């Protein structure tokens, strides 16, 4: 998958992010930070984020972008780059 969504339980912004991706039909992998210690370390130590969701996106041209929080404009840009239409 080209997009990984790092989440935590009962995260409203995570649910909103999933909803946008699902409506657009964009495939993604979900990783629960509360149960995956390696993923938690990656997000906090390597990427430097302290809140969920964290989106890690690899674009068709190989470019990697990542961000934290519900970011509709960034999601729309990713969906468009992947050849879909954002919801």
Structural summary, described in words:
By secondary structure, this protein is an alpha+beta fold. Helices cover 38% and strands 22% of the residues. The protein has three helices and four strands; from the N terminus they run βαβαββα. It has helices spanning 12-24, 37-46, 72-81; strands at residues 3-7, 29-32, 54-58, 64-68. Strands 2-1-3-4 form a four-stranded mixed beta sheet, with no helix packed on it. A hairpin with a 5-residue loop joins strand 3 (54-58) and strand 4 (64-68). Helix 1 (12-24) runs parallel beside helix 3 (72-81). It is globular. The protein starts with a strand and ends in a 6-residue tail after the last helix. The mean pLDDT is 94.
For the largest sheet, list the strands in their spatial order. Answer: 2-1-3-4
- The radius of gyration over CA amounts to 12 Å
Helix content estimate: 25-40%
| Poorly predicted sequence stretches spanning 5 or more consecutive residues | none
Mean pLDDT: 94
Coarse morphology: globular
Major sheet attributes: 4 strands, mixed
Structural class: alpha+beta
β-sheet strand percentage: 15-25%
* Number of beta-strand segments: 4
Distance between the termini: 20 Å
Order of helices and strands: EHEHEEH
Number of helices: 3
Write the layout of secondary structure elements.
Elements: E1 3-7, H1 12-24, E2 29-32, H2 37-46, E3 54-58, E4 64-68, H3 72-81
Parallel strand pairs: 1-2
Antiparallel strand pairs: 1-3, 3-4
Helix pairs in contact: 1-3
What keyword list fits this structure?
3 helices; alpha+beta; 4 strands; Thioredoxin-like_sf; Glutaredoxin; globular; 87 residues; Glutaredoxin domain-containing protein; four-stranded mixed β-sheet
